[in-house]
Amino acid sequence: MADFDIAIAGAGAVGMSCALWAQMRGHRVLLMDPEPPGSGTSYGNACTLATYACLPVNDPSVLTSLPGLMFSRDSPLSLSYAHALRNPRWMLSFLANCRAAPSHRIAGHLADLLSHADAGINPLIEAAGAGDLVVARGQLSVWSTGKAGKAATAGLERRRALGVPWREVGPDEALEMEPGLHLPVKRAVHFHAARHLRDPQEFITRMHRAFTELGGSTLTAAVEAVRPSACGVELQAEGQSLTAGHAVIACGAFSRRIEGTGTQKLPLGTERGYHVMFRDEAHRVTRPVGWDEAGFYAVPHANGLRLTGTVEIAALDAPANKRRLAYIARKGAEMLGALPEPDSEWLGYRPTMPDSLPVIGRSPQSERVLYAFGHQHIGLTLGGITGRLIADLAEGRQPNVDLAPFAADRSYA
Ligand SMILES: Cc1cc2nc3c(=O)[nH]c(=O)nc-3n(C[C@H](O)[C@H](O)[C@H](O)COP(=O)(O)OP(=O)(O)OC[C@H]3O[C@@H](n4cnc5c(N)ncnc54)[C@H](O)[C@@H]3O)c2cc1C
After folding, report:
1. Are 246 and 394 in contact (CB under 8 A)?
2. Cα–ligand 1 centroid distance for 56 (angstroms)
3. 332 lines ligand 1 (CB under 6 A)
4. In the predicted model, is pLDDT for residue 70 greater than 70?
């Protein structure tokens, strides 16, 4: 008999949710990570259960704005051209998916998955005793120019057609909802079904506590290799060898680094993102507020005001780009008025396939290896449903979500 039914590599929002779902279903689960649960990209995000976020970064507007990105210091999207040239497969596929037809198809698949997000995460919030961390005040998106506000209409209507509820809010009402805004608000939309977590890492820590209390095991070690066979998987982790019925690869942007998983063949890339924290300024906003043109959010985190977002397409191991951090701090002051010096800064790695769809399903090489990565901008939101789907697959159950669009061996264009 194998040591465990299911061994999970990675204890971020996705891996931890897989572990807790499987443990709640009564399996013998091992969670493996060299770092504390929730301390990777899941630590520093915009805290939003963004059930509205079905429009991918792959958008026709990227194709027209690309030349400008090369020179602008004021763009929410930045690209390392050296990195792009070293990774032509990811880059070309990403750009091909910016055409209107694939972009709309991707939005449909993301909307389908997002429609199950609350059903995936709510049981975990309850099991973790984390109801006090959840705030149901929606998300407010604002535009500071009439031109950008108008340009957003097509995307907003597409979301509505895909079942995402939102409400147009006039500039006066937006300022009543968020009096701390200093922007000239020209358009505002309230995604009232969205929620946010006051502290994503605390949520994951509490999930880990619930997992442990239910009998789950944790090994603080990096998984180096997996060796699947017909009846199970052998895992190597820092000198230890373990066996499990199934292995789940949930290492976010680092999911290609484990030998024997088959992930090395997949075009997993990263969209890097940043945050800056201001310890005593959380009162500036009462819910996540996204300044659309600037590509970032102001979020009331339990530990202060968090300004976070932007997309930087660059290597996993490249140093933090100080210009990105300066951009967020500068734009934050435009959005909210003068701010003190930040108390901390952070760089994180969104795990992104070039079609912005996650990979959720069996490895094409072995049904004993399950993939759960590539959740790009919405891994906090989709972790819960991913965990439930992975538990279904490990049990040989038919999931109630069509997983074909998320299969590893799909065409990435
Ligand atoms: C600026 C920014 C803002 C964001 N805002 C939001 C938001 O508001 N809402 C939302 O839903 N999403 C948001 N996201 C996206 C979200 O944070 C990610 O999609 C999510 O954190 C990915 O979770 P993960 O578990 O896949 O990866 P991670 O959180 O990175 O976890 C991966 C784990 O794998 C571990 N690991 C790595 N290698 C190994 C190994 N060999 N063996 C074992 N373990 C290993 C790492 O230590 C890490 O703990 C944002 C992201 C960024 C960068």
Report:
1. yes
2. 17
3. no
4. no
**Span between the terminal Cα atoms of the chain, in Å:** 42
Which amino acid is located at 242 in the chain?
A: L
Mean pLDDT throughout 119-127? 98
Identify the CATH assignment for 54-100+134-195+268-352 out of 3.30.9.10, 3.40.50.10750, 3.30.70.1050, 3.40.190.150: 3.30.9.10
More confident residue, 70 or 227: 227
13, two tokens: 């929002």
Q: How much is the average pLDDT of 189-206?
A: 98
> What is the secondary structure of 268-322 as a DSSP string?
-EEEEEEEEEETT-GGG-SS-EEETTTTEEEEEETTEEEEEEEEEE--TTSPP-H
Which regions of the chain carry the CATH code 3.30.9.10? 54-100+134-195+268-352
Q: Cα separation of 201 and 40, whole Å? A: 9
Indicate which residue's Cα is closest to atom 52 of ligand 1.
45
Q: What is the DSSP letter of 116?
A: T
Superfamily of domain 4-43+202-267+356-406: FAD/NAD(P)-binding domain (3.50.50.60)
The response to whether residue 13 sits with its C-beta less than 6 Å from ligand 1 reads yes
What is the structure's pLDDT at 81?
A: 85
Q: Which atom of ligand 1 is nearest to the CA of 374?
A: 26
Q: Residue whose CA is closest, atom 53 of ligand 1?
A: 273
Q: Residue 12's closest CA among 349, 270, 393?
A: 349
Structure tokens at 381: 């939101």
